[in-house]
Amino acid sequence: MLTGETDAFLIDSFKSLQQKFIVPESQEVSEFLFDFQDLMPFLEEVHSALRPIFPTEQLSLKLIDDGSEAAELALFVHVDGEPFTELERLSNFQESWW
User: Fold this and answer.
1) Beta-carbon count within 10 A of 72 CB
2) Which residues contact 52 (CB under 8 A, 6 or more apart)?
């Protein structure tokens, strides 16, 4: 259960992420992010880096948990262009980000 100023900050941080990313399973993702708090500012940074290359595409967060290993958080960029063009945009993001 969340209590105190730190937890209020975490809740506000998650709400900020929900404005930037679609989070279909918000309860599971929020619990994961509260456990791995350092990911929240990182995701804000990733969002800022993605937007110049993918300005209007939907971005979503999903928790991947197949039960065999530790759960992982995945970020999806929903594109609908030609595959070659979208792969080129992804490559541009990778070059600018890393």
Assistant:
1) 11
2) 96
| pLDDT at position 89 | 94
Helix (H/G/I), strand (E/B), else coil: 52: coil
pLDDT-derived band at 3, boundaries 50, 70, 90: low
* 24-47 burial: b if 16+ Cβ within 10 Å, else e: eeeeebbebbbeeeebbeebeebb
- Give the C-alpha distances (Å, rounded to integers) separating 55 from 7, 8, 27, 41: 31, 30, 27, 20
Strands (E), the chain: 58-64, 72-78
Spatial contact of 69 and 46, defined as CB atoms under 8 Å apart: no
Which tens digits make up the pLDDT trace of 18-71?
A: 999 999 989 999 999 999 999 999 999 999 999 999 999 999 999 998 888 889
